Amino acid sequence: MRQAETAYRQALLLEDDPDAHYSLARLLLSSARHDAALRHIEAARQTLPDAPDLLQVGAPAHLAAGSREGARDLLHRFLALSKTSNLWPKRVEWDLAHTLLVDLESESGLAHWERAWAIHPRIAAVASMLRGDLSVRVVAVFHTEAEERPRVWYAQANYGMALLQSSRANEAVRFLRRAAKLAPEKQGIAFHLARALAGAGRRAESLEILEGLLKDLPQSALRSQVQILYDRMLINGGRLFPRQR
Could you give the CA distance from residue 101 to residue 124 in angstroms, rounded to a whole number? Predict the structure, then answer.
């Protein structure tokens, strides 16, 4: 990463090139240097003010830097391109623009959600689940995808997570177990499978998975979550919550 950053900066010394600014901005964003990334995004926009990639990357960068108005401006510029350009190849980004505007423009939030659903239902459903909005429509989208794509790990994981967050742990186990088999390297899926097993009252299976994760995981946010669930299960006799008196 350091070598890449150095190379981009050396390229910019040779020529004020918007592609180099864009690539450097993305690299800076990956290390949470949002203000520095924004400077390079704006430098690139001096040459290409309405380039879709710059608008799409710039909006979340503004949000991360605390500039809601800056994000709104770039998102609307991006959406305006749909009137003169074919945004269908970028429908994921098009959809995400609407989902970001849900929180930024509460008065038109519902309209943005409906537009997002029309463009790309799965992306809208993922955004809904991350927001904690688990409507019947969200679960139905993930159910359809899981049935149509039985060998795709994220299709199985999304439906399993939707079921788990809908307090349907027994049903979630099947799909999260399938996702874990399809993508054994995804330790986060194993953790959520353990959560589902715990919620379904299958203590021994859940603890076995958690113990394996505690052996393998380095210090991280995921390891902390695993430890919390493991300790809670031991304290509560295998239940996620104490038995009510």
Answer: 12
CA dist 162 and 126 (Å) reads 9
Residue 99 falls within a domain, yes or no?
no
- Number of compact structural domains in the chain: 1
Long-range contact set of residues 70-74: C-beta below 8 Å, sequence gap at least 24? 70/38, 71/100, 71/104, 72/101, 72/104, 72/105
The structure tokens listed for 12 are: 């910019």
Instruction: State the pTM of this model.
Output: 0.70
Whether the Cβ atoms of residue 125 and residue 138 lie closer than 8 Å to each other: yes
Q: Is residue 84 part of a domain?
A: no
Q: Which residue, among 241, 226, 232, 149, has the nearest Cα to 190 in the 3D structure?
A: 226
**How far are the Cα atoms of 134, 177, 210 from residue 190, in angstroms, in the given order?**
22, 8, 8
With respect to residue 185, please indicate whether it lies within any of the assigned structural domains.
Answer: yes
Selection from 209, 212, 201, 213 nearest residue 238 by Cα: 201
Q: Reduce the DSSP state of residue 105 to 3 states and report it.
A: coil
Q: What are the structure tokens assigned to 201, written together?
A: 């009252």
Reading the block at residue 156, the tokens are: 């199985």
Question: Is there a domain that residue 138 lies in?
Answer: yes
Residue 151, Cβ neighbours under 10 Å: how many? 8
Report the distance separating Cα 45 and Cα 79, nearest Å.
17
Q: 183: domain CATH number?
A: 1.25.40.10
Q: Which domain holds residue 197?
A: 122-245
Residues of the chain with pLDDT under 50: 241-245
Cα dist from 25 to 8, 94, 97, 181, whole Å: 10, 20, 19, 36
- Per-residue pLDDT reduced to its tens digit, 6-17: 999 999 999 999
